[in-house]
Specification:
Layout lengths: L1 H20 L1 H25 L3 H6 L18 H7 L4 H32 L5 H10 L6 H14 L5 H24 L4 H9 L4 H12 L1 H16 L3 H6 L9 H8 L8 H10 L1 H19 L6
């Protein structure tokens, strides 16, 4: 009986020791998470405040009388949703974003498979060149690319912005895809080759289905980047209502001098809805796709 009590006591002490040994780390993580969340909370509260209150006091003042209904309004959201051209802007953003995600994924998957498993002259050199393009700021390419688009009559078209986002996203896509595809078991690919499968068949039947985690990871990155982009959209699409995306319309709503920036707070949460759907739909693959290839054993 005494032995059982001593064993239980020891197990309990070990359990407490484990809990308290990790307490500082847990406290630090919770503190960082709270500090990181505070600006988002402030933005959310501001989006429900009248413009006059926003201009006269800080968002934290609502906690003085948190249940006073008069200090909240949904007018900011109504103004964004009913703004002229906003519905069309959401459609335009989807028309820009979806192909700008699918095209680089398709090209990068082929390229990464070739760099990882196919032998051809200059393979290492071309791979280094592609990875080196990751450090080139996209701002350096805007003017030369714009001149090329004007000459080719692509400026102001969806095709032009699709190609721009594809070019800017391909280096990262190839890097991520290569890190994952290069770790696939060689035995599987060799078995396919022995069975008479061509490289294209091996790629489509084996490599692509096995690469879903990294595809989902890059899809999240690229979707968020393109959906929230303003610079590339302004340069290659412009501000015409027929082709303007959500970010362009929000920029126009806040005014030339930013005097109506209260609209931006509501617009931020409205435009956040679709990216959140994409992230939570693919997040189970996210970490696995990013960490694949980091450790080989």
């Amino acid at each position: 009986m005494s032995v059982t009590i001593q064993t239980s006591t020891k197990a309990g002490n070990d359990r407490l020791r484990q809990i308290f040994s990790g307490a500082p780390l847990r406290i630090a993580i919770i503190t960082i998470a709270l500090l990181w969340t505070i600006p988002t909370i402030g933005l959310l509260i501001t989006s429900f405040r009248p413009p006059d209150d926003i201009n006269s006091s800080g968002w934290w003042t609502v906690f003085q009388h948190p249940f006073e209904i008069s200090q909240y309004t949904i007018q900011n959201y109504a103004e964004v949703l009913t703004a002229e051209g906003m519905g069309n802007a959401f459609i335009n953003s989807l028309l820009v974003t979806i192909p700008a995600v699918v095209i680089p994924i398709t090209i990068a998957a082929f390229a990464a498979y070739a760099f990882a498993w196919l032998e051809f002259p200059g393979r290492r050199f071309f791979f280094i060149v592609v990875i080196g393009l990751m450090v080139v700021p996209l701002q350096m390419a805007l003017v030369p690319l714009l001149r090329l688009y004007v000459a080719a009559d692509l400026n102001g078209t969806y095709l032009g912005v699709w190609l721009a986002h594809t070019g800017f996203g391909l280096p990262l896509a190839i890097f991520l895809f290569y890190g994952y595809i290069s770790t696939l078991p060689a035995e599987i690919l060799e078995s396919a080759h022995v069975d008479g499968a061509s490289p294209l068949t091996t790629f489509s039947r084996l490599v692509m289905p096995l690469s879903v985690p990294v595809i989902a990871s890059f899809a999240i990155f690229q979707f968020l980047w393109v959906w929230n982009d303003l610079l590339v959209a302004l340069v290659f699409l412009g501000t015409r209502k027929e082709v303007a995306v959500v970010t362009s319309r929000l920029s126009a709503l806040i005014g030339d001098r930013g005097q109506d920036w209260h609209v931006l707070t509501a617009g931020a949460f409205i435009t956040m809805f679709i990216p959140l759907i994409v992230f939570f739909s693919l997040q189970r693959y996210f970490v696995r796709g990013l960490t694949a290839g980091s450790v080989k054993g």
